[in-house]
Amino acid sequence: MFAQAVASRGRRVAVAVPAPAARTLLGIRTMTTNNKTTTPIAKPIQDYTKYLTAVSLARQPSAIRALQPIMAMPGMISLAGGLPNPATFPIANVELTLKNGAKISMGDTMTRAALQYGPTPGHPDLVAFFEKLQARVHGTPYANKQLERKILVGNGSQDLLAKAINALVAPGDTLLVESPCYVGTLAILKPMVKAQGVKLAEVPTDAHGLIPDALDKILADWPATSPKPRVLYTVPTGGNPTGNMAPIERRRAIYALAQKHDLVMLEDDPYYYLQFALPPTDAATQQLTPPADQTTDVALGDRYASALVPSYTSLDTDARVIRFESLSKVISAGLRVGLCTGPAPLVDRIALDIQATSLQPTGLSQAVILALAQHSWHGVPAGFLAHAARVAAFYRSRRDALLKAMSAARLVEDGLVEMSVPQAGMFLWLKLKTVDDASALVKGYATDRKVLLLPGIEFLPNAQPGEPCAFVRATYSTATDEQMQEGMKRLRECIDLAMRDQQKQKQQAPKK
Ligand SMILES: Cc1ncc(COP(=O)(O)O)c(C=O)c1O
């Protein structure tokens, strides 16, 4: 390895790069034609330093946490760590009762692990289960087989995402974000825009997610005087707020652009397992909670896995994607269990942030998921996938109920609303075609008539307060059929009233 000083965003940082011979060993191919070196099709990232912020690069492993594996060695007398004595903990065992009546007793070993400090990346058995799941669903696509892919379990995917952004976005940087964009990500970014001069370059989307030509143009036209963005953020499946899903051709095109422009991608995918991928007639998905005596439906899990759209992670030959997933939408939101998967040099940086902030994911929450994995899913990914297939079928039926309610109120039929039908997730993104300002409608008419929607302006990365926006987000997750029918009837009344008042105002406005 050569130690080399590279200019990295105004800083000079010493990094190790492989010597030419070692590059071949690492699987990094270069092709030579006419004495010119051309770029290979797969372009594994060789140096992650240029993507990382100075703060992230300065993080050092915790000395105490580094001792953990040594402390765990059989026969070791440890006077080094700071573990509290578990004899003082009052909880002896944790028992779960599932909705189908099954009981899972965690037992001594798992209860002890759940209550004690544990490894930063997560309980090793849980990480191993997720590695099996990731290999089953996303494969192991890195062209550079020596590069390790790592998984971190986290306290929800939001926290992992925030830590990734902290590791990758420095003051003054520009981040590429899809527009509209998940409001939780904007909550992380907007203070950075205000206080640190971070800029958000909006990449437009349509019913199929990010638009490749638009992304290419933004980057091709990037002014030479300002540093090009290096990171792209997207929610590719059942987007929040749009409900849109990028089909495989789109994903391939966007990934090719990430290669062309040397981007790291943040694939924020909490709705991946809410894809309406199986036909509604699939009998195995009809029952949300199968009886306790029914064994894990591996066939259903396999069927669902085969029907899922491939993720960016599964296309990631270059190791340039960090994937964020959540168990919030399929197991429990309150347990706060999420995971991120990606190339070790980037994931390690997120792990160091965890070491310095929350130390580790919550032990009891991990133990609950691990208990489900071992007992309900029999340790096989297909067990989890079968559960996810049933949850997705549930959300499909909720989506259909909302579409039916909209139809009864003739919102689309009468030309008042435009939307695309979501193929995943729990959101509908509605354009109110005849209303000047959807935010005013939500805050005024809709609040008065007790129907709540989210104003679309909240999801526009660079919108100014008070800017008119025609969109609202509706959720079909928790409302009953009756509430949906009544809610859409009220929305129709609000639109009719807003149109009538707009008309009046226009008639009363002085003629120029
Ligand atoms: C797009 C997106 N990313 C991340 C999250 C956060 O999920 P978690 O509960 O895992 O933190 C959400 C939650 O709604 C979301 O919609």
UniProtKB/TrEMBL annotation:
- Which PANTHER family does the entry link to? AMINOTRANSFERASE, KYNURENINE_ALPHA-AMINOADIPATE AMINOTRANSFERASE, MITOCHONDRIAL
UniProt family annotation: Belongs to the class-I pyridoxal-phosphate-dependent aminotransferase family.
Q: Which SUPFAM superfamilies match?
A: PLP-dependent transferases (SSF53383)
Matches recorded under InterPro entries: Aminotransferase_I/II_large, Class-I_PLP-dep_aminotransf, PyrdxlP-dep_Trfase, PyrdxlP-dep_Trfase_major
Q: Which UniProt keywords apply?
A: Aminotransferase, Pyridoxal phosphate, Transferase
* Protein name (record): Aminotransferase class I/classII large domain-containing protein
- The superkingdom listed in its UniProt entry is Eukaryota
Q: Does the keyword Zinc apply?
A: no
Signal peptide segment: none
Transport: is it a keyword of this entry?
no
Listed GO biological process terms: alpha-amino acid metabolic process
* Domain Aminotransferase class I/classII large as annotated: residue spans: 110-491
Cofactors named for this entry: pyridoxal 5'-phosphate
Q: GO molecular function: any one?
A: pyridoxal phosphate binding
